[in-house]
Design goal:
Length: about 650
């Protein structure tokens, strides 16, 4: 090779390195926001009025927390990591660098604008997908740009064979785009909207964060351990097993929901099946390690720690999907652990491992202890707290000594108070580690970008090797089939269902707002002393304040929910968009709050919203005294209308 040829080989990838650095530095700025917000949320569970203003209230901070970590930190950082690794895995220059830069501006700008909008109370009421539509469009456009850049780079590959990481990177970005479109556009209403939201949420976590992180791990672990990949065939099996199972478990958090029973059966089957990709991937990575090299390599320790958190999903997902365990664990803090395990444990540690290989940091081991240890303590706290609170709620019907609402809910709160204290301590440890890491990345002057090596000429493509277009098509088919079965089919199956009397009389909020409510609704609301337009406005306050992050409006057909009222059916919520079934019971279920003593009185509800601890000193609900008198009246009327 001539001197010019050698120089050209060495310079491959250098154009991408500037873009990579920009992505990581922008991403860690969002990481700081997410870490601080997570700590503040944990503190507010123990001290509900701590910094409790409109902008910093619990319900408004939740979408800021999830949005800053998922969209701002992980998505931008993972895209940056992929831009760094693609030239080194394919031997090709990063294609369309201007498009890559534009994608960063779009994702960062859309995320930043969306965070401000949700903090101001302009969220959309859809978990993880709260941004106003115009910011969503910016994020989708940015992700589309990244998917095109990565796919074109894969197409330009000079390596005879595509390494397994390229499979995960190319497929993961297109899976992310699919999940974003489903989550953002909200094609459905009622139960079908709830199903599509859960499908999109699982797609984001399981089909983007995990695949991109696993791709990083497959590059880093053999390289840092100075050992070859144990089995390329096992790694490929893990990839297709991941694609074919994790895309089907989106309804794992919807057990006992108002969906078809066969959805629970499918989810249960695939909740067991995810053990296959978890075991094959973990085995493939761990068997590639020369353990004598682990002690001297902090990035390798971080990558292995991320792999450990990935393995925890073998416990988390089945526990949420099976009816017997879901009876206890659903709506408890156990459900929150999915986000922590996937985004904060696995995803964040994998990205940190790559960043540490690029920027030397003396505190690397300390950061591993802080971030890894804090995440593990947080997961343990959520698991144990979820078990105790879940068994407490389930015991209400058998003991008949209390009910899971009103004054009886103190029994549930008492079980988690000490765990909430441990939670904010865990978050303080975790936040310290992430902030130190972020500041090191922001202030780093020297980056160690490795040169791209010449292509391996001795490797011959195997007959079964896929090329980038085939990977994209296969990824789309896998995700599309799961969406068709899990979301579209239930919607078509129930397309001729009629609204229930409950829906017509107390939950048709569009007609309430424009004054076209049915006669049954007019009679019911008049009998309760409520105004239809005010009730509809109150629901908007409920959405903007994020009340659905702490309260469910879903009564399930299981022992835990005995005494909460009629079981929620899909016909009851057929008009709702967004639907507020909820995910957690930090506070009691509100599906039928208007038929209970105290919460059937507008004046009492207003007083309770303004000062929750005046009559219930144990309450962990924040005060809403920052709302106007009109907003308090609207919110109170909405709660009383829940018959």
């Amino acid at each position: 090779m001539t001197e010019q040829g050698v120089e050209a080989e060495i310079n491959v990838g250098k154009n991408a390195d500037v873009i990579v650095r920009a992505h990581l530095q922008v991403a860690v700025a969002f990481l700081i926001i997410g870490a601080v917000t997570g700590l503040l949320l944990a503190l507010q569970l123990s001290a509900p009025d701590f910094l409790n203003t409109g902008l910093l209230s619990f319900g408004r901070l939740m979408p800021v927390f999830t949005g800053s970590l998922l969209f701002g930190w992980l998505t931008i950082a993972l895209i940056g990591a992929i831009y760094y690794l693609m030239p080194r895995l394919t031997g090709a220059e990063l294609q369309s660098p201007l498009l890559a830069r534009a994608g960063l501006l779009l994702v960062a700008g859309g995320t930043g604008g969306g965070l401000v909008a949700t903090a101001l109370g302009n969220g959309q009421g859809r978990v993880l997908f709260e941004f106003p539509w115009y910011f969503d469009v910016a994020v989708i456009a940015g992700v589309t740009a990244a998917a095109i850049v990565v796919t074109r780079t894969a197409l330009a590959h000079r390596e005879p064979r595509l390494y397994i990481s390229v499979y995960y990177f190319v497929a993961g970005l297109w899976w992310l785009l699919f999940a974003l479109v489903v989550g953002v556009l909200g094609f459905f209403q009622g139960t079908d909207l709830a199903l599509s939201n859960r499908f999109a949420e699982a797609g984001f976590l399981f089909m983007w964060v995990l695949p991109a992180g696993i791709g990083i791990a497959y590059y880093l672990i053999p390289k840092l351990a100075d050992s070859p990949l144990f089995s390329e065939r096992l790694a490929v099996i893990g990839f297709w097993a991941h694609a074919g199972t994790f895309s089907w478990v989106g309804m794992y958090s919807f057990t006992f929901g108002p969906g078809a029973d066969w959805l629970e059966t499918i989810t249960g089957v695939f909740a067991i099946a995810v053990l296959i990709p978890i075991m094959t991937t973990v085995a493939s990575l761990l068997l590639s390690v020369d353990w004598s090299n682990v002690r001297s390599s902090p990035p390798l320790k971080l990558a292995l720690a991320g792999t450990f958190f990935f393995a925890l999903l073998a416990i988390q997902i089945p526990a949420m999907a099976f009816r017997s365990s879901s009876t206890i664990l659903q709506f408890t803090s156990w459900a929150e652990a999915t986000f922590v395990i996937t985004a904060i444990g696995a995803g964040t540690l994998w990205v940190m491992a790559l960043a540490h290989s690029l920027v030397e940091q003396r505190e690397a081991d300390a950061q591993l202890v802080l971030v890894g240890g804090g995440s593990l303590l947080l997961v343990g706290t959520m698991w144990l707290g979820g078990l105790l609170s879940g068994f407490t709620m389930a015991s209400a019907s058998s003991s008949q000594e209390f009910v899971n609402f009103g004054e009886g809910f103190v029994n549930v709160i008492a079980q988690v108070n000490e765990f909430n204290t441990v939670r904010w301590i865990a978050w303080a440890v975790l936040a310290l580690g992430t902030v130190v890491f972020a500041l090191r990345i922001l202030t780093a002057r020297s980056w160690r970008f490795e040169p791209v090596l010449p292509p391996s000429q001795e490797v011959v493509p195997a007959p079964g090797d896929l090329q980038p277009p085939q990977i994209v098509v296969a990824a789309a088919l896998v995700m599309g089939l799961a969406f068709l079965v899990l979301v579209v089919t239930p919607a078509l199956d129930a397309s001729d269902e009629q609204a229930s009397l409950l829906a017509v009389s107390s939950r048709d909020y569009d007609s309430f707002a424009d004054g076209t409510e049915a006669e049954q609704a007019r009679a019911l609301l008049a009998g309760l002393g409520l105004d239809a337009a005010t009730v509809a406005a109150g629901r908007e306050v409920y959405l903007s304040e994020g009340c659905f992050y702490c309260h469910t409006q879903q009564v399930r057909a299981n022992v835990t929910d005995v005494g909460l009222g009629a079981v929620t059916k899909r016909q009851d919520i057929i008009f709702e968009n967004p639907v507020v079934l909820g995910r957690l019971r930090i506070g009691p279920d509100l599906a039928h709050a208007g038929v209970r003593e105290q919460t059937n009185d507008v004046a009492w509800v207003k007083d309770h919203l303004s000062d929750p601890r005046q009559n219930r000193g144990w309450s962990v609900m924040p005060s809403y005294d920052y709302l106007t008198e009109a907003e308090l009246e609207e919110l109170a009327q909405y709660i009383v209308s829940l018959q």
